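Q: Please design a sequence for this.
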């Protein structure tokens, strides 16, 4: 007995010693950080190759109170990494004056990601493109003597290195690199330079070498990447961007195959239709990438968010940056995109050991059909069966079994035998969102201020000739006034015998308004394909002095292309008065003009609402140009759902809530009437104009107001209306879910986290979940097991229908926030034998 007691004590002592040593080891790892390297197969973190799934979320396109939920939803969706750009122009608006507060708090954003247990890919750039104003460069950079952007130019390199080092030093100070125990495992220098490098010649090549050397010299302890840079020098990893990257090969056999931007949709433009990308195609592209040796793939965007303020680039990029992402602009899960990609991630991870250990054996199974098999020495096996034909489904034989492969799809077999997922078969809920008008219906009390037409500032200045706008305003405002006086004596060559006088104005864009003697004479605008404006309008001039005022407006500055920084804006001429009959004319371009940067309302700081110039009486001006509006609004209290303001009835301008700009609005810019379709075939290569909706409608009417910007009552709403609008028509709305649907066949593969569970699993399941916290499934709008027809919101029963379906689903789901039901004849009975059956359900959540 004494021996047993002694042995027990020794065992406990040994266990305690092992525990202490383990704990010390973990603490040492936490202090010393993770070792991040790479080989030809993957990133290696603490000695282990990792198969990683990433998603882009840009911190300034959401708000700090949204970040934790966005990150958690990303983690729940199966992401390992969050990727973000660093936006130079918001952090250093004036040289050596920095701002990292609020939405700009990069350190806090990285910490939130790390706290959630995810990694970070920090794309410093500092050129970012990103449909962001001026590509992320601050405008003051443009005025540094002898500077040339993104080339072997000493002034530019000095500023680029200074800012890059500033960001790296901030991350190091907070111990945010993986080498210090933080979440950052990758950094990027430059961005898509390979797309434009040839325009810079030999100086472009030496610039790439310099950028790589500069970045690695900063000693972050993690690898650096360059996307779209086939000549990225060692040890920089070159990566792929695009809708498909399965064919991409790194420029060295020692580098892993990485995809930094898989575009989940496309950006929207004012005046354009809304692009979207079917999830079946995204899933196909993702699985093909991993099938062909990829080991890190990033969704651009996973949450797109909102271009608040004047941050949009383009020009003409809309305020919404929703991007048809798995998490929508308002922070809500977009189904079935989020759910189907989550299933894809789970299925891919079942193959991680084989994918990162073995090399594939690729076999043709027929025309446009192939099998890729990864098999380790220990016998672990994973297979991908791909049908990349754009039209024809196929039945293939593999390992003595038959498999049905829809066109443009890949099946994943984690044991080289059983299919857990096919990219074209969606086993995820579908949600139909809606906006609900939550405005209090009492008559609002508006105040207003009429913006003076023409010069109203003591800071105005005269100059002979026409000035380019960006060089004049330094983008301090969207607006620049060009003003002059014309003295009419009656014997001008273009004013004979009662001829009509025409004014011709040529502008680099983006929007132009012409006022003659204080009255609007005409307007013109460019578009995302051509920002230039050309106006020819009839005007009436009177004897004596006539006042000509041109208001030029920008809609975001150029953000992409070789030498994009040299793309100008504003009235560059000619400006010509001419006769409509005899051809005589006078060129006003070289005469003296008076210039005013910005508006009087901006100088008075009207966006804050704090000014004594506001007027308030019963004569509210409507449908007039250049009017500032102000009113108090209360936040919708019916729910905690996201809030949007509907600008239907307004023309074009900018809006502020409690001093925060929610961005430019432009609901009168209508998308073309053609090019859209009710549905989009996912089969075949995707392009940004393949799948469009919203044709013939305003490009954007609803604009996100973050909840954190709103008080329960007494919020100040400020509008500047540039064209003409009726502010009494606008309304506050909440983003809500109309229906949640799911449709699963009894033969549908069911992806799971653990393959052993799959072998014991119950088979296909249908799952429903309410999208908002504290919601429950209140009713079942439709339920049918058999051969139901239609889509979510328009399901219909067929002759093959189990009468038990509705009662079974109601019992399982109503009153719960989520539910799952097995899809089989064991549950619902067999309404029609020898037919493959499907369960379709539509539910309401309250």
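A: Design:
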């Amino acid at each position: 007995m004494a021996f047993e007691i002694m042995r027990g004590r020794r065992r406990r002592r040994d266990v305690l010693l092992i525990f202490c040593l383990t704990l010390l080891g973990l603490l040492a790892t936490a202090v010393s950080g993770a070792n991040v390297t790479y080989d030809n197969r993957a990133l290696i973190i603490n000695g282990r190759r990792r198969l990683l799934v990433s998603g882009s979320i840009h911190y300034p396109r959401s708000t700090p109170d949204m970040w934790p939920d966005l990150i958690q939803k990303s983690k729940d969706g199966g992401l390992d990494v969050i990727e973000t750009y660093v936006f130079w122009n918001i952090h250093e608006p004036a040289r050596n004056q920095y701002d990292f507060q609020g939405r700009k708090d990069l350190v806090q954003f990285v910490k939130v990601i790390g706290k959630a247990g995810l990694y970070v890919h920090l794309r410093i750039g500092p050129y970012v493109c990103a449909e962001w104003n001026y590509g992320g460069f601050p405008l003051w950079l443009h005025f540094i003597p002898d500077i040339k952007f993104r080339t072997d130019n000493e002034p530019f390199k000095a500023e680029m290195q200074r800012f890059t080092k500033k960001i790296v030093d901030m991350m190091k100070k907070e111990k945010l690199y993986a080498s210090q125990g933080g979440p950052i495992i990758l950094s990027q220098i430059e961005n898509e330079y390979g797309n434009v490098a040839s325009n810079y010649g030999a100086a472009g090549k030496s610039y790439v070498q310099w950028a790589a050397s500069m970045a690695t010299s900063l000693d972050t302890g993690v690898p650096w990447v360059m996307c779209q840079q086939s000549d990225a020098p060692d040890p920089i990893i070159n990566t792929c961007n695009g809708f498909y990257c399965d064919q991409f090969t790194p420029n060295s056999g020692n580098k892993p195959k990485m995809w930094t931007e898989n575009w989940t949709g496309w950006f929207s433009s004012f005046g354009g239709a809304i692009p979207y990308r079917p999830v079946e195609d995204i899933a196909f592209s993702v699985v093909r990438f991993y099938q062909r040796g990829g080991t890190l793939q990033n969704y651009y965007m996973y949450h797109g968010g909102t271009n608040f303020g004047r941050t949009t680039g383009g020009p003409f990029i809309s305020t919404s940056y929703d991007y048809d992402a798995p998490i929508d602009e308002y922070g809500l899960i977009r189904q079935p995109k989020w759910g189907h990609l989550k299933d894809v991630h789970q299925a891919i991870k079942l193959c991680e050991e084989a994918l990162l250990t073995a090399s594939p054996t690729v076999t043709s199974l027929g025309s446009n059909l192939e099998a890729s098999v990864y098999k380790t020495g220990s016998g672990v096996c994973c297979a991908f069966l791909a049908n990349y034909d754009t039209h024809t489904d196929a039945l293939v034989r593999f390992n003595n079994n038959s498999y049905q492969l829809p066109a443009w799809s890949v099946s994943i077999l984690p044991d080289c035998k059983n299919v857990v997922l096919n990219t074209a078969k969606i086993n995820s809920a579908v949600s139909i969102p809606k906006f609900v008008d939550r405005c209090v219906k009492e008559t609002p009390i508006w105040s207003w201020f009429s913006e003076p037409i023409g010069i109203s500032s003591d800071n105005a200045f005269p100059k002979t000739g026409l000035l380019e706008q960006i060089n004049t305003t330094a983008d301090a405002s969207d607006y620049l006034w060009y003003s002059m006086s014309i003295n009419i004596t009656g014997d001008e060559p273009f004013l004979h015998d009662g001829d009509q006088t025409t004014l011709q104005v040529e502008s680099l864009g983006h929007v132009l308004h012409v006022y003659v003697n204080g009255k609007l004479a005409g307007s013109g605008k460019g578009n995302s394909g051509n920002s230039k404006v050309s106006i020819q309008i009839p005007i009436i001039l009177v004897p004596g002095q006539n006042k000509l005022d041109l208001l030029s407006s920008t809609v975001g500055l150029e953000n992409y292309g070789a030498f994009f920084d040299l793309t100008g804006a504003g009235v560059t001429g000619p400006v010509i008065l001419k006769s409509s009959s005899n051809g005589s004319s006078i060129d006003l371009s070289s005469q003296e003009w008076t210039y005013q940067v910005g508006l009087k309302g901006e100088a008075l700081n009207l966006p804050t609402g704090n000014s004594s110039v506001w007027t308030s009486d019963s004569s509210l001006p409507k449908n007039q140009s250049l009017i500032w509006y102000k009113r108090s609004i209360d936040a919708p209290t019916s729910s905690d759902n996201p809030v949007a303001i509907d600008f239907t009835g307004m023309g074009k301008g900018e809006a502020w809530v409690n001093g925060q700009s929610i961005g430019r609005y432009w609901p009168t810019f209508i998308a073309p009437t053609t090019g859209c379709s009710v549905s989009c075939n996912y089969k075949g290569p995707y392009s940004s104009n393949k799948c469009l909706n919203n044709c013939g409608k305003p490009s954007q009417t609803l604009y996100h107001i973050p909840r954190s910007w709103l008080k329960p009552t007494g919020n100040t709403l400020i509008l500047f209306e540039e064209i003409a609008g009726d502010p009494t028509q606008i309304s506050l709305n909440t983003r809500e879910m109309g229906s949640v649907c799911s449709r699963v066949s009894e033969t549908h593969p069911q992806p799971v986290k653990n393959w052993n569970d799959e072998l014991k699993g119950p088979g296909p399941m249908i799952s429903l979940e309410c999208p908002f916290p504290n919601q429950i499934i209140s009713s079942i709008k439709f339920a049918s097991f058999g051969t139901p027809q239609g889509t979510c919101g328009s399901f219909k029963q067929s002759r093959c229908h189990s009468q038990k379906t509705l009662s079974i689903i109601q019992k399982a789901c109503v009153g719960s926030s989520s539910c799952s039901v097995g899809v089989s004849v064991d549950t619902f009975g067999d309404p029609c034998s020898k037919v493959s059956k499907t369960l379709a359900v539509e539910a309401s959540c309250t």
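Q: Thanks. Anything notable?
A: The radius of gyration is 31 Å. Residues 1-31, 751-761 have pLDDT under 50 and may be disordered.
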